[in-house]
Amino acid sequence: MRRLQQRIRDLEAELIRLQATNDALAAQTRDEALSRVQEREPALT
């Protein structure tokens, strides 16, 4: 039973770490996309 509880704690910690990594990557992707949009030349009017 203790091994199972420890495994659950380990998996929960890994999940938190992966969520933080995912959040950071998502923010970086948004920043890069915004930067690309801002670098485009304006449309002809």
Give the low-pLDDT segments.
none
Q: What would you call the structural class?
A: mainly alpha
Mean pLDDT: 90
Kindly state the number of beta strands: 0
Strand content: under 5%
Please give the count of helices: 1
Instruction: Give the overall shape.
Output: rod-shaped
Q: Give the helix proportion (percent range).
A: over 70%
For the largest beta-sheet, the strand count, sense and barrel status come to: none
Keywords: Coiled coil
Structure explained in plain terms:
Keywords: Coiled coil. Residues 1-28 form a coiled coil. There is one protein chain. The model has no long low-confidence stretch (mean pLDDT 90). The protein has 45 residues and is an all-alpha fold. The protein has one helix at 2-39.
Write a compact overview of the structure shown.
This protein is mostly helical and 45 residues long. It has one helix at residues 2-39.
Q: Which structural traits does this protein have?
A:
45 residues; mainly alpha
Strand and helix map with partners:
Elements: H1 2-39
